[in-house]
């Protein structure tokens, strides 16, 4: 099942957050944004990228949940109790299982746990940060750069609300076997019990992740995810003044997203949406279809305002292969773009014979394509 591609579909809503994004998980469609691509200090939300690297190492077989990593003096001093930040209270020179370190990073936001993971995997935290940036480039996160595993303040460490939402989406999609950790309500280590810093997990609106963050300069933020029925949303709020305001603005954003939109399916799996001309092809055009059914989430009560256009770069040149992405369906409400869906070639179109190519050349020359 394929939904719309990511585009801006904002309707009447606002938030106190300085930065915000609300994203449909299945499609990546952004249905609300506020300074989504502005550079921000990610604080402990950085740890989502730390976890992405750790989970990739586990999937590759280079690390297991039962491996134990050493608590160095650097991890203990920089991220431990003496640092004054969020901590696991790991003991100096102890060894801790990877699974416990992962749980601490998620539930307790343990800075010491994040550094222990970074050093255990890469030897040093700067080397681990290079791995974080390599993965960020692979995911197309152009607005992010990481210098440490914790999110502790550094002028060269930054991200965007959109990138943070994309990291959350990646974790949910690629590592469902680990996602249950994000919803755990508490964790105890070294005889100290700490509640999950994501307070929305306990309020009954379906929130089951992902990560909070705070520094004095950046304010309070969170990357949140909730599933209601067959739809999952990912929300980001950041730059708020308190934990209470963070929880309230996050709740409002997610609740609005759940209730303000309806799902419609204008094209079933395999339905032809339109045709694109093929210059010099063995056929004059090629049918365009979605990758499965095309389903859109649109503001409730907006059906009367809807119009749509088919867009592709003309002329297409052969050979066109079945499954090539060749166009886009764009849906508008009162001339505002609300969603878009990628379109693909329904069949192969090879190069035509000389007569076909000559005819098409004359036709396209006459209408100004050449």
Automatic annotation (TrEMBL):
Keywords: Carboxypeptidase, Cell shape, Cell wall biogenesis/degradation, Hydrolase, Peptidoglycan synthesis, Protease, Signal. It catalyses: Preferential cleavage: (Ac)2-L-Lys-D-Ala-|-D-Ala. Also transpeptidation of peptidyl-alanyl moieties that are N-acyl substituents of D-alanine. Substrate binds at residue 211. The active site is at 44 (acyl-ester intermediate), 47 (proton acceptor), 109. The keyword Signal applies. The keyword Hydrolase applies. Its EC number is 3.4.16.4. One of its GO terms (biological process) is peptidoglycan biosynthetic process. SUPFAM superfamilies: beta-lactamase/transpeptidase-like, Penicillin-binding protein associated domain. Transmembrane segments: none annotated. Residues 261-351 form the Peptidase S11 D-Ala-D-Ala carboxypeptidase A C-terminal domain. GO terms for molecular function: serine-type D-Ala-D-Ala carboxypeptidase activity. Pathway: Cell wall biogenesis; peptidoglycan biosynthesis. It holds the Pfam family PBP5_C. Removes C-terminal D-alanyl residues from sugar-peptide cell wall precursors. Belongs to the peptidase S11 family. This is serine-type D-Ala-D-Ala carboxypeptidase. It comes from Devosia elaeis.
